[in-house]
Amino acid sequence: MIQLRLRTDCDRTLAPFVTRIAEGEPLCVDDATLSLEEANTLSYRSDKADFRLRDVSPEDVAGDVLLIDPRRQIAHRLIRAASLHNTFLITEQCDQLCLMCSQPPKPQHQDMFDHFLAAARLAPPGAQIGLSGGEPLLHKDALFTFIDAVFAARDDLTFHILTNGQHFERGDLAWLRKHRARLLWGVPIYSDDPATHDEIVGKPGAFAKLSLNIALMGLAGAALELRTVVLQQNASGLPGLADFIARHLPFAATWAIMQMERIGYGRMNWGQCFFDSSRDFASLGAAIDLMRARRQDVALYNFPLCTVPPAYRDFAVRSISDWKQKYLPACGACTLRENCAGFFEWYREEDGFMEIRPQ
Ligand code: SF4
C-alpha cells in the first residue's frame, strides 16, 4: 500500500508547516530542495525549516505537498503529485451513522483549513482535489470560505466534495451557482423508499431532507454525482431507485453504484450488509438498463471486472484510489487487469465475492 504518512525528523519546537518537494529549482519559498541523500534518509532544506524524510525515494516524493508535524515527527502527504486521488479530510464529525461507513465519525474536530489552503496553492496545475469527511458541510461556513480562497488564488483547480446532502439551505443558492463549474458534489442516496434510506444512514428524516436539498442543488445547476452503495438492504430496490432518479433527478450528472469497503463500520457490518453481486447481478443489471433507456449516465465503482457480466463491463470504472488498491494472486495473468478496479487493500477473499474468474 502506498504510504500517506512518512517518518520525518525536524526541530520539534516548530509549528506544523506545509511544504512542497521541489522537482528541480525551487519555485517559491514553500519549496524544499534535496540537500543530501543517504541510505534510507533524504535531507531537505527550505526557507521554513530543514527536515529529513525516511524510507522513501526522491522520485516517490518529487512534487508532493507535505504537511509536516514536527511534534509527532510525521509528514502527511496531502497532495501526491503523481496521483489523481488526492483528498483532504475536512472533518471526522458526522451527523449520520451509515451501516457501511468506511470512516466512522469521531466527536472532535480539528480545523485544518489553513493547512489545506496552503497545500491547494501548491497543487499541480489542473488538479482535482477531493474533500471528504465525516461530513464536510458540518463546517459549511469555513468550508465555503476555504473554497473561495482557493479559487481566488488558483483558477485551474476543481474540487470533488463528498457530502450527505443534509446541510444546504436556500441561502446557499448564490454560492452554489457561482462555483457550479468547478465543484462536483458526490451525494449518497440509498433507496427511493424513505424508511430504507433512513435505516441505512441511521438518521430518521434524512431522506426527506436529502430530497429537498438535491432539488435545491438542481435549482443551482450544481454538478451532482449520486452515489449508492449496493447492500443486502437495498439491492432488490435498485431498479426502483433508478426509476426515481430518472423521473425526479434527471439533472444529475451521473449515478455511481458502488461496492462496499470492508473497513470501519463496513468491516463490523460486513456479514449483514455485503451483497455479492458476482452471484446475483439481476437488480443491478435492471437498474443500469433503465438508466440507459432514459439516457442518464450510470457507472459501477469498486466492482472487480470479472464479477460484472460482459454486457455491463463498460460501466465499470477503475475507481479504487491507488493508495488502497490491490489485486489477488489469481489476478496475475488476467487479461482484464489493466481495466479492472481490483480490490480494496482490506478486502478478504473468504467472505468476499464468490465468483472471481481470471480471464
Ligand atoms: S481476476 Fe482479478 S484482475 Fe481479473 S477481472 Fe477479476 S478481479 Fe480483475
UniProtKB/TrEMBL annotation:
Tell me where the signal peptide lies.
Answer: none
For whether the record's keyword set contains Calcium, the answer is no
- Gene3D superfamilies in UniProt: Aldolase class I (3.20.20.70)
The UniProt keyword set, sorted, is: Iron, Iron-sulfur, Metal-binding, S-adenosyl-L-methionine
Q: Which GO terms describe its molecular function?
A: catalytic activity; iron-sulfur cluster binding; metal ion binding
Q: Carries keyword Metal-binding?
A: yes
Q: Which cofactors, if any, are listed as required?
A: [4Fe-4S] cluster
* Protein name per UniProt: Radical SAM domain protein
Q: What organism, scientifically named, is this protein from?
A: Mameliella alba
